[in-house]
User: What shape does this take?
Amino acid sequence: MPAITNKQQLLTQAHAVLKKRFPLPALEPETPRPLLEELLFAICREGSTTADAEAAYTRLHKVFVDWNEVRVSTVQEVADALKPLPNSGPRAGWIIGVLHAVFEMNYSYDLGDMEKKGLKQAAKQVSRYFNEKDLKSIGLKQAAKQIARFKQVNDFAVAWVVQRNLGGHAIPLDGPTFRVLRRLNVIEETDADDMESVRGGIEHVIPKTRGPEFTELMSIHAKELCTDKTPLCAQCPLKNDCPTGIENLKKPEKEKPDSKPKKSR
Ligand code: SF4
Assistant: This one.
């Protein structure tokens, strides 16, 4: 296969190749989650996969009677329910924080009220939770901006909710996805400083209808092959087009990131 030099082509090619390598189940949940639940799920999903996040989310539902019990529990208790999801402590803190913010806003756990009350009104109600940095960095639809103003919610969670709940076009980018895209040379190390521009570039290439699939494939690939310290380039279907993979596979065996020290007998 000839080397692909164009970043857009490489992204499209990666999507197609990974789709063959990692066949996906149907992505749509049978019953769409309410907005708040999608937001809380997004906190579990960032830096993980949907399967692992679903498992953690299900454990939350089993351990706690309702969202109010989660809200009044300790970070440690919620973190224990989320384990073995990585970073369970910070995630637990964010989940509790969002629940406190939503509860203080309208004394219920229904973010759908935000839209019924009108976005301007909702903005006023949540004004003390605004996070201007998040707001400015995300150029998504107005409803997403409202959600972004919860200081516990970052741009991944906002983009996730837009993609999975609000019907907009957004590609959530978390650490593992960034890692894959950086190794493929689709984005630069410094691009993380300009999320809106990076996201816009990816969304330009990946159409809305394929956004959820792309998001899933990137996460699974990051977990299965393009792992943090030891990318399994020799097994990767992108190895002929990925600049990092090409470099890694040129290295002598002992210098390869996925090489393991040989045991002496
Ligand atoms: S070739 Fe290696 S670095 Fe490139 S995407 Fe595959 S696993 Fe990641």
User: Anything to note?
Assistant: The chain is about 55% helix and 0% strand.
